[in-house]
Amino acid sequence: MAWTGPEPDADGWMRRFAASARATEAELTALDQRVGDGDFGTNLSAGVGAALRRADAAPGTDTLEHFAEAFLDEVGGTSGPLFGLLLQAMAGAVGEGGWTVVALADGVGEGLAAIRRVGGAAPGDKTLVDALHPAAESLRGSAADPAGTPGSALAAAAEAGWAGVHRTAGLRARMGRSSYLGDRATGVPDPGAVGVALFFASAGGEVRELAPHLSASGV
């Protein structure tokens, strides 16, 4: 996928993610009220707020690591610690391999494996894994292209993530609060999956609203 904007860096990406989470908090909350506990938007917004405070208190340090620590230590709910595992794996891979497509692919792949190991979810269970798995696969494919850049790779991962979100709308949940709703949750995309797609989309720019991204799901 072509990338026309400036190449993203970790600090800019995380700050845009924070802005996106805050801008879409109400939409995420409304979505989670339909299929979950109704706290996903609030928890995500609180997580990025805590992460920014950590990052701003130590300028010039690893923003990814600050975000990982905040989500692991300070965010409630199920998704917060899972996002923390993803961010932690990414921070480790980028810290070791540099800001490259290969390092990003390794970090996201390791984060996905950790999330699946801890949470037990698989693709098709209607969880955030349904967006993270295709995003990870997309990054793995991008890493095989020697001419690829982090910007183009992350843009493709975001597209794959949103496609995964749309697929969750047609799934019957097998895990989490949505699983207790049975067919009543069918037709509604998984909020955690939306959060993952939002995360990757924010690499390219702040997301001000979810509605245009969710329209293909019929929401």
Description:
With 219 residues, the protein is mainly alpha-helical. It has 10 helices and no strands. The chain is globular and about 40 Å long.
Write the layout of secondary structure elements.
Blueprint: H1 10-23, H2 25-35, H3 40-57, H4 63-74, H5 79-97, H6 101-119, H7 129-143, H8 150-168, H9 191-201, H10 211-214
Helix pairs in contact: 1-3, 1-9, 2-3, 3-4, 4-5, 5-6, 6-7, 7-8, 7-9, 8-9
Give me a quick take on this structure:
This protein is mainly alpha-helical.
Q: Low-confidence spans: pLDDT under 50, at least 5 residues?
A: none
Main sheet summary: none
Write down the secondary-structure element order: HHHHHHHHHH
**Approximate shape:** globular
Q: Summarize model confidence as the mean pLDDT.
A: 90
Nearest-angstrom radius of gyration? 16 Å
The residue fraction in helices comes out at 55-70%
Number of helices: 10
Give the amount of beta strand, in percent: under 5%
Alpha-carbon distance between the two ends: 26 Å
**Helix vs. strand class:** mainly alpha
Number of strands: 0
Features:
globular, 0% strand, 219 residues, 10 helices, mainly alpha
